[in-house]
Amino acid sequence: MITATDKIRQIKAIFGGGSLDVRGTNIAVACPACGGKSSKKKLSIHLETGRCHCWVCGLRSSRVSSIIYKHISRDVAAEYRQQCEGGGRQLDDEDEDKEQAPPPLQLPEDFTPIFSRSSERNPDARAAARYLVQRGFSVDDIIRFRLGVAQSVRRRVVIPSFDAEGGLNFFTSRAIDPDTTLRYANCRVKKTDIVFNELNIDWKRPLTVVEGPFDLMRCPDNSTCVLGSSLGMGHLLFQRIVTHRTPVVLALDSDMKAKAQRIAELLYSYDCDVRIAESPREGKDMGDLTYATALEIIDRAQRWRPLDKLLFSISNIRSGSTI
Length: 323
Known about the structure:
- The protein is 29% helix and 16% strand.
- By secondary structure, the chain is α+β, with helices and mostly antiparallel strands.
C-alpha cells in the first residue's frame, strides 16, 4: 500500500508542486482547469479521502484520478488510480461518484414568526419578544431576520438562515432564560458547509463578518456570521470570499483578537482586502452594542497588513509566556 509520503510526492509531481496545510490533511496544488488565471494554489485535495475542490473555478471531484484524467492525462490518471486509489472502475468521461442529495432542511413543523397572528396568544412568543426588546432589538430587526418560536424548542428564539436561492440552509435557536446551560442549539447541518443568510449578501461589496446571529443583527445589510470562532479554508464562507475577492471587515469579539489576526492573514494570502474592527470592551460582544455604536466601530476598521500580526504578537508578549 502506498504511504502518505509517496502519495504527496505523486501529487506534487503530477500537479507541479503543492503545499500541505498545518495539520497535514490537505494539500493545495495549482488547479489544472483554471491554473492559468492565478499563480495561487487553489485546488485543495484531502489526502485521505481524495476529495478535491477548487476555490476559484468551483471544480469538484470525489477522486483525484478523475481530475487528472479530465485535465492532465488519461495514462497518468490510470497510474495514479492504480497506485494511490486501489484500482476500481475504469476511468471515463462520467467517472464521478454520484452522491444522494440529502433531504431538504426544514424548520420545526410548529415554527411561527414572533410577530404573526398565530403567535398573538403564544406565551413563548411574548416572552421571546420581551427578551429581544430588552437586548435592544427592534421590531424591524425581529421581522428582518425572520425570528420565530416553536413549541418543540420551548423558551427559545428560532433564527433561520437562507441560501442564495432563498432556500433554508441552517437554523439555530437561542435560549431566552439566563440559567439555560445550552445557549444555542443548532440544526444538524455542518456550519462549515453554509453561508449564513447568503440570500442577503452582495459579494461585490465589502462584507462584515461577525461571530453569531445576534452580532449580525447589529451590522450593516451586507454582513454574515461564522457561527463560531473560526473561519478557514474548509468553510464555504471562506471559499465564497476568495472566489469573489470580496473585501472583508472582521468585527469579532474581544476574546477573538488572536484568531482575527490569523483569519486576516489567511484571507490576505488569497489577495483579499481585509480590515479589522476594534473589539468591544472585555465581556461585551457586537450583539451587546447599539446599532449606532456597532456601525461606528465597523466604519473605523483598519486595513490589515502582514506587519500587523507581528506587532500584535509583540504587544502580547508577557514575561515567561510564549507566542
